[in-house]
Input
Amino acid sequence: MFEDRLIEIEKLAQAAGLKPFDTYFEVIPLDIMHEIAAYGLPTRAQHWSYGKVYNHHKIHGEMGLSKIYEIVLNNDPCYAFLLDTNDEIENLLVGAHVLAHSDFFRNNVYFDGTNRNMVNEAVDHARRIDEYIERYGLERVEHLMDMGFALDRHLDSHKGLNRKRYPERQVVEKEVVRGAYADLFGEDGLSLGTAVIGEKLPPHAEKDVLWFLANYAPVEEWEKDVLEIIREEAYYFYPQFETKVLNEGWASFWHAELLNRYVDLSPKETIEFARLHAGVVTPGSPMQLNPYYLGYKILVDIKERWDASYAAGEAKLDGWGKLFEVRATENDISFLSNYLTPELAGELKLLTYGYADEEDADEEDIEIKSREYDEIIRQLLAPRYNYGAPKIVITEVERGELHLRHEKGSLGDLDQRYAEKTLGYLYELWKAPIYLETTQDDKRVKFFFGPNGLRVEAGIGLPALSVASMAA
Amino acid sequence: MRLAVSNLEIPWDLRRRGLKDSIRHDKRVREAIKQNLRELIGEETIITSDGQKMIKIPVRYLDQYRFIFDRATNGRGVGQGPGNPGDVIAKEGDGAGGGPGGNQPGQEIYEAEMSLDDLTRMMVEDLALPWLEEKAKDQIKTTTVRYEDIRKKGPLVNLDWRRSLRENIKRQAAKGETKVGKITDDDLRFRVPEIHEEYQSNCAVYLLMDRSGSMTTEKKYITKSFFFWMVRFLQLKYRTVETIFIAHDTEAAIVPEKDFFTLSNSGGTRCSSAYQVALDHITKHHPRTRWNNYVFHFSDGDNFADDNPRCIRLIKELLDVSTMVGYGEVNYDEFFRGKSTYTPFRDPPWSTLYRQLGTLHHPRFIPVTIERREQVYEALREFLKVREN
Output
């Protein structure tokens, strides 16, 4: 019996130190798998964009380009979905993989703040949205959701989901530090001064754009609720985004480990298991890394290195101990920068690529740019912040107009067509002009979005370059 | 810890949430197609399709806008494999797209299937032949049969299989059976034909095309795509309309429709020749008292100068016997391209013929100019927009 065998594997997992949630497996048809994969949560509210992803999965699945083996939901109890067309051995491997994911959800620090009742919560979200659709019409609600989804990557994972509004304007007494070395010059070290809180809106550059809009934009109560729903679901998925490589590596490491320890496989199943495992942890291509493979390889490397140094008396933790520590404390950014060594990057033949001529918008050729370790790490980490989206912060509300800044760092410019549409959404929500400071070709520019659509203005302190007017 | 494999027989097939939202996405794609008609109207694959079949329109999945990086940044990423810096790993046409965003559905293309009629309907739904009058005599009665009602009794030829089967399944389901059972008389459903009668005005449309040597491939393409959509529009909206195709260089002749669209070109241009042929045909077959006549002429205006006065005279005569005369000038000149914007009655570079025609100022003479493929749609709308009598 599949269930009995899975329970055996779960016992092996417990014995090895994994602590997954109670886990419920549901064996489902392929089409439903595509559907759940599209929604992320099977109970989520309707929106056409899920239909688009569903369509995409379906076409890819039917063409045999990709196959979705499992879906696990970060929830207590944990829910997992397996394919009814899979062999038993396939589903045993996937089951072991799922248990490791479940363990990761439960024990990785970045998942601490996630809502473990999201499956039920999403049902409630869907119900509320259905109600709004009934009351305000599909077009209106859908359009509002379009606007919400356009901004739902701009979260502040450090501030978290639950936040209070900024304090109202008030004058408070506050300790003021005069200067780090003031005491050396005979001045008083610390003294009391007055500070004004809440004078500026927002008081500091605000990264959580949806939160700001839901709380400070002139939106109706139900609109605020829809934005909050979208924001809450975006926060829920963020830890899964920021731990993708480690999480998949962890699950791949453990499905191999657990099935190796499981003695009750027939010879045929053992061969099949080896074939399946090789298929999962297969190297990526020159333009696409396989996160399962990368994460798995790094974890195997950690195990070997710490086992060796522990044996030599150089490390406090042995390989197993180290692995569980990594599982508990790292996300992809720290995992990759701490444990992807130059040697391993070389062994894996990692490379960075890009358009051969990046200035030329018609360039189609993509070439290998570098094999330098630092460059690889930089490129590897760049898309792992902020849902891979550009960092946009709200800097100021001035005379009712909303000012934003694109904090570019070493990354590229914004795509203007997409920025135009997104600024249009912001304009619609904020109901007053929007400014966005950014750069274009190393020149500072300001995007202005008002009643006549987008205008690109030359940056502060620079002469006007060109005024491109594009009506919305 | 507890682990369980569910044996609940959840009727998954009944959910169809993905399907529902995917239909919604399709619907929005269609709306987007509608907004981009002016680009589609020039699509060669559509013009060259044989007219009856379903056509496939390549559409992108609908974009979801958000702040994203520019192309160069999206094109960067980390991969693995052999090779040295500088080696090209993907070329044009690989469909590589590139970068971490490369596998996003937003950049992928799938094909929306649509019948040409549907597409035409989208294009022309608010268009009509202007100033169409009911001519008292010779009204033509057209009858069409439509199936609009369903009844339980009827002749077997009108049996609606699908509905009958559904009734059977419903009846079986009520008994708890999940298969098709014996079909009884009670299951049968019949479609009921209803005869609709419509009265239509007598209407003839003359399509005149310049096939002279100066009509370059692109000009000819624009002209032909205009006529293609014109014919589609007429077929769709006016079942009884008569179309007369006239091709000309220095001489003109009435040609069959299939030849009209495949004619090769050569020779000089004498537009008056075509006007004369149209005029003769109208006076002989389609007198104004009984017919609504429409004349549409497309040329690049590269007319023999001494022919212009004759053209003006003939156009005036044509206006006396027809409801409307439309003149479209295709000016696909590399030199002027991009310098002038599409507006009727703008200054040069339009031809001397165009300028002289412009002095006509007759309310039912409509001149338009076209420089690019995308403007075919605007020309069509300019000619066929609903006008006050």
